[in-house]
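Limitations
The structure tokens in this dataset are predictions for the assembled complex, not deposited experimental models. Users should treat interface geometry with appropriate caution, especially where small molecules or nucleic acid strands are included. An illustrative entry is reproduced here so readers can see what is and is not provided.
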Amino acid sequence: MTSALHATDLGKRYGRKWALSNCTLDIPTGHVVGLVGPNGAGKTTLLHLAVGLLTPDSGTINVLGEVPATSAEQLGHIGFVAQNTPVYEHLSIETHLAMGAALNPSWDAQLARRRMHDLALDPSQHAGDLSGGQRAQLALTLAIAKRPSLLLLDEPVAALDPLARREFLATLMEVVADNEVSVILSSHLVADLERVCDYLVVLAAARVQANGEIEDLLASHHRLVGTRRDLDSLPTSAHVVEVSHTERQTTVVVASDDPILDPTWSVEPLTLEDLVLAYMSQAEEQRRELVRTKGGAS
Amino acid sequence: MNASSGVSPYQQIVQQVKSALRLGRLRVGDQLPTVKEVVGKIAINPNTVLKAYRELEHDGLVAARPGIGTFIVNSFDDTTYAAQRTLRRSLEVWIEKARRAGLDDESIEALFVDTFLFAPKEVVV
Amino acid sequence: MTWFTWRQFRLQALVVLVLLVATAVFFAVTGPHLWSEYDSLRHCSAHGDCASLNSSVNNGYSKVFPFVQALVIALPGLLGMFWGAPLIAREIESGTYRLAWTQGVTRARWVLTKLLVVGAASMVAAGLMSWMFMWWASPYNTLSANRFSSSVFDSAYIAPIGYAAFAFALGVAAGVVWRRTVPAMATTLVAFVAVRLSFAHYLRPRLLPPLTKVATLKHAQNIGFERTPTGMSFVVGDANQPNALLVSSSVVGNHGGTMSSQWLNVHCHALFHFNPPPGKSGPTSVGVRPAMFTDCMNKISASFHQVLTYQPASRFWTFEWIEMSTFIVFALLLGAFSYWWVKRRIA
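Predicted assembly:
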């Protein structure tokens, strides 16, 4: 079974700064994958590498089994909605759809027209006159009317009001319900991702911090609260994600397949948002530590 | 769909269908909304809906007819449904009595919940 | 992709089309009259009233000719700035490249189609303009007999086609490197002008080995003497060579050598020591000492002659072809660069 996205030690550098490094992922098809992380974590970089807008500086990436952007056919299998949904401001909706038809090997013109009709969008309107939500819907239409096997979306709802956001995601889910299409969408809002995704990739500090099916992630991560102590009593297979001590209390977020048997720990449920935040704050703390030691050393 | 209730979305769907069955809002033969319709209304992952429908099928309440849809094939006991109508009327009478006695809504609810929680669980025949 | 390239390009094409049509209308309106006057001029020698017809034709053209010619010469550069520079730069600037390059066409095909379609359009536009212009201006150019001169040559028939291709390709390349339209336009303008001027000034005269002609100074026109820091020197206008391209001209001694200011001092002593005003004395001051002046000139023409190197009028078309082909080769090189850069490097 071909992966939707397969990256091995993938890296991309701007000048001397690595926007993405040591990224190894094997994302299976048939999922709605959430790519979450703080701004500047490398989400856009990863997506751009996946559609061939960028070329790797280290490592490799394969999408649907092929190197990105190498052939028209391969490009035709992938639908992409870039951040801030770029459109040609001075061209009409009709022209955009005609462009999609002319530039893609497979194009479902009826689907495209129907969607415009359902949204009550006048085809002769210029794309520049549309609201943010309407533009996002146009961009989504352009991506799905080519009947892709994989949809990649870069923060598609970040700039939208709540209603537009809900409508966009609902449309996306309808597409997933109707077709065999895998989706990878990036966002920094965990709440949205939790509703629509069943697979998660956490990117922070230019690295992959966690990835897997959301069910599995939630089942294997726990928050432990107990009196202040060292962490030796935890099973060796437990991987500490984040730890914080107060004067009397220690709180740990762990990933562990084995059950936590020590009764002095109280095990609390962890929401997806908590989980993501734990990874993100740990990555941030590590990054700051690195900066501090560098500064201290020089 | 209540995102913060702590109950997972798929469980909420199962519970909603079951309670609709119990209250007679869904009858045998009715068709459940398609997965596409559900996710089009509330933006959640289609797999979640599929999972809920599968559990309902496993419980014997619904059956999926490929190409057509998912239909209710079994409800809870019909007698339960008939008894519900009578019980609802008795409850309405009781509520009216409570109001005439001067209780406000919160007191009525508290009285009912308190009595319900401490009532015997089994029916004494 | 071809269709979509046209669709994106529509407005820009329309502007130039309107310009071409307006110019064509202008030519159509004024041309026939000028041509008929020119025709009468050609047949007038028998009747003797040529002078006034001549000036009539000249006057008919002289007011508008500079503007029209300026337009024809500027057109390739304008095409480079407004068609070439934004071609790729604007897509990158506005972020629409993220839409364009993720459709079902490879980047290679995308850039190639744009280069070919708009490049061909610019060549056609420039060609149309220059041929229309040459038809309209032909009487004037024939009378002026300056076909090989820089201003006429640059706007004649096929050279502008090469310039347009070059300017366009230059614009695209600048856009690809800068990724912003405005700096690309500025770079295109500067580079285009620099290349054109250098080529016209330094290379064109030497594309083929020039011919040499020796001319006597007896009937030279525009002669005079100039006081320089080192002494006196002799200046003479270039001998008349209709429709030819002058490469160089010099005054050479019959047995070799140049005219030095000592020679002048010795042989034309009387003329120079009559308190001549400093600076160039031209034909207007001849009246001061005509006899001395004529005497000096006779001595000069006995000992010196003028040597001209030039490209003959017969080579006009050869040179046009060479120039057009060279600029098209430049354009192809720049086009290949842009293609390669977009395909491999740009992001």
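Some entries come with short summary sentences. For this one: Chain A has nine helices and 13 strands.
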